Amino acid sequence: MYSIQIQNLNHSYDSIEVFNNNFLNLEIPKNQANKLYGIIGPSGTGKTTLLSILGGQLNPKTGTVLIDKVNIYKVGDKTRRDIISVQMQTATALRGTLRENLVFGIISDEKLCSDKNLIDILKKVGLWSLFEPKDGLNTLIGEGGVNLSGGQRQRLNFAGLYLRAKHYKPSLILIDEPTSSLDEISELAITQMIDELSQKSVTFVVAHRLKTLDQAVGILDTSLISTYPELKFYTKDDLMTVSQYYRDLQAGKAQLEE
User: In the CATH hierarchy, which top-level class contains the domain 2-250?
Assistant: First the structure.
């Protein structure tokens, strides 16, 4: 059984309160075929903050985060990396060659890091045609990915996450806005890869487009946080009942926000 728990969560930025004694208690059988869960909500309601707290990048003012009963703020980076794989919206560490970006931290996995496998993944995310005419896997990536567009950085970032998740087989994968800068073909490929990862690991996705969550088992709507202290993943039918924001999304009266 996978277990994701947050207890007594409080956090604010300056005087703006994001979480106020919120809690999460999610248990998912390891043999559950689909473990994809979505996170939506208006801008400023804590979507990215929640992922940063769950991933160990942001220590909340108060609260405990337990992944499979492990307090992620009381273990080292290596243990966290074994338990959680994270892709946030921006990738500030991009540097070196294309290959180095992809295999960082997993270079010992020869099969996963083979040229053939790396090229196959780059083809899936629509990047190989960009790098093949240059120096292929040896193409230099500028500091912070400055020579790549936002969508290209996003695809490269996701390819790295996909490889890490395949290597570490974490309990939890956290992905923030995976398709917000992508064309429909690339979006479809990455959505399919996310669905593949969610067969093995619990996968939380902050979505910019509702169709990214077509296969989601449940959806957490952060517009409800101020009303309901439980951070609950609702079925789509139940969310239609409790959330005006979600009803507006479905009716085309609102759009998902970053």
Answer: alpha beta
